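>> Question from a student workshop board

For tomorrow's exercise we were told to take the sequence and the ligand below, predict the bound structure, and bring the output to class. My setup keeps failing. Could a helper post the expected result so I can at least see what it should look like? The ligand is FE2/S2 (inorganic) cluster.
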Amino acid sequence: MTESTETVTLDLTVNGRTHQVELEPRELLVDVLRERLGLTGTNLGCETTSCGACTVLVDGRSVKSCTMLAVQGQGRDVRTIEDLADGEVLHPVQAAFQRCHGLQCGFCTPGMVMASVSLIDEGRATDEQSVRAALKGNLCRCTGYQNIVAAVLSAAQEIEADR
Ligand code: FES
Ligand code: FES
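>> Workshop helper replied:
Here is what the output should look like for this input. Compare the format with yours to find the bug.
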């Protein structure tokens, strides 16, 4: 990272590709993803750490990207919803959300899916209670959560069976 008086030039690796971005140190990761890199799959809701719409993976762990400065992404591996599907083939978590009707308006869905991917990878999607507890930082105003929990458990089973 090279510094000038007001901006820094950052090498930011997102979805396996490194981008050189000139930005102010105060800029949030979510804004850089959406506005500089055009990755608008990551939604911006509350901007105050409450809703989870902005959840991405950083080094494989779910992070609310409105809580992280973009400069903190230097040297880390950032992954967004755009990187999950393999062409036309949905990631198992995306497919489970579709199969189980785990979305309605879809605003919370990218964040919900990314948080679920991390949850499943960490082996913590073991039962309904664990999933509900782990996703309590991701809010959904439409679904009532039942189908989201069902989708996460279904995807966890499928992913575990493939391991
Ligand atoms: S926009 Fe980041 S938690 Fe709501
Ligand atoms: S599907 Fe609308 S907010 Fe969750």
